[in-house]
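Known limitations

Files may contain more than one protein. Parsers should not assume a single record per file. Below, a two-record file is shown to illustrate correct handling: read the sequence, read the token line, then continue until end of file.
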Amino acid sequence: MSIKNVLRKGLSLFAEFPEDEAAASPASTYTTPTPTPRTVEEIVASTPGPKLEEINLGTEPAPAVPAPGGAPDFNAVYQRAGLPVVPFTAEQALEVIHSLPADLPIDVRRKTVQATLQTMGKAMGVGTDAVLSDATRKLAALAAYEDLLKGQTEAYCTKVQGQIADLERQIAEHKTDIDNTRQMLESATKSCTDESERLDDVIEFFTQDVGASKYAGGGPTEQA
């Protein structure tokens, strides 16, 4: 799945809520309404930071382009995209998630992580909304980074392909020059050979028909 498709899918998902916030409230005759589920897109729109459609990396060369097999400097990408610095990042939340036993049911892991965030939130202002928004904005930045890299790559490839075509044209011209030169050599060699035979006829005419003479021993043609 492409980065943009991952982002679109994520935006359409509904967020998980902490377990029964209403039950944790002091007893009263007033019943707290059940919170309306919100999509990730709605949550991101409600948190401080750039709107998703505003996240881009401009037209300057992409930051931190890795060598083949390497990974980009994601922090440089996020900084270039203007993402806000948050007290608890999506990557840190991922560390908490991965620290839990993989065989725990997903519901148990969610409640555990949410409880951790609630505890941290009292001291650091950390919450599920902030983590979801950080992850989503970073996805948008990665999608923009991918678009920028694709554009740069296509421009570079077009330029190099033009250079290759020019070199191929030059190679074809040089090959033609080589063929013409060889034909000139062949023609000149034949002319020289023909002329050498004519001059040899002069020498043969005024010399004896012995030894190396082509007329020695009754050659193909007798001298007049």
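...continuing to the second record:
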Amino acid sequence: MKYFFRRIIIGVLWAWHLLAVLAGQKPHAVVLMYHSVSESGWFFSVSPEEFDRQMRYIKEYYTPVRLRDIVDFLDPVRSQTPKASADAHVYPVRDFISNGAGRTSNGVEGKRPLPNRAVAVTFDDGYKDFETHALPILERYGIPATVFVTVGEVDRKEMGNYLPLLGWDGIRDIGKSNLVEIGSHALTHKKLTRLPPEDAKNEIVSSGIIIERKTRLRPQFFAYPKGSFNDTIMDMVARAGYRGAVSATHLLAAAETNRFAIPRIQIDRSTSFFEFRAKLTNASDWYYWLWSIKEKSLRLFLS
């Protein structure tokens, strides 16, 4: 019953989105967040068949882009963090993971145009099924993806969900693909906002250094573990030399979006194909806004 009403709500909002398109709307981009492509039955896993259907739809009706294309589209002025713009050489990691194109936002040359109906695909954690199931499908449709690896978990065979991880050999192998970019998902997957500042900084800085040391690939982007971040954490990421960072906020990216707080739309086992198509539009923004209002109202009622 819950999914029936969710489908009704999203359908209404989708119709509203189509009216907004006809009336004209600001350019936006969609960043999708996946974890696993497998038949494991895990909530965050999408079946290979469903993932193929989703990627085929994106290829036919949208413009697949790299995450860096969306970052280049975002307003560099709004993306400056107060502390990072004041001192760009606080963390030595800049010498390891930053090059001419990988400076903090105040060093980026400016906003670039974005293709119409742009969609970027990202994966969190670094599961082995990305190499065995997801990558062949991405290659079939020519869709790029950014894989955020949890560095401290790589040497373990699996995470708490018992799904096997890539390992450094696997990460190096997928990094050879022209479609794949490796990003950092910190060291231990802990909420950075709950750590002492020095520990949080170490999670951000050391993970980038280790990725480059192990793969000879410079991670340009960071994914906040569990989507948890604040202004202080954003500042640390900017100072560390990353070009941008992604969250787990269920919104679309617009020109005024901060490149160190890029929202992503989660796709998981509960996402029907109808809902997937709606999530690629700003109907998703309205749905999660209504959902957040409902949750806040419920908490107030129960308190």
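Parsers that stop after the first record will miss the second one. For reference, the second record is described as follows. The chain is about 45% helix and 15% strand.
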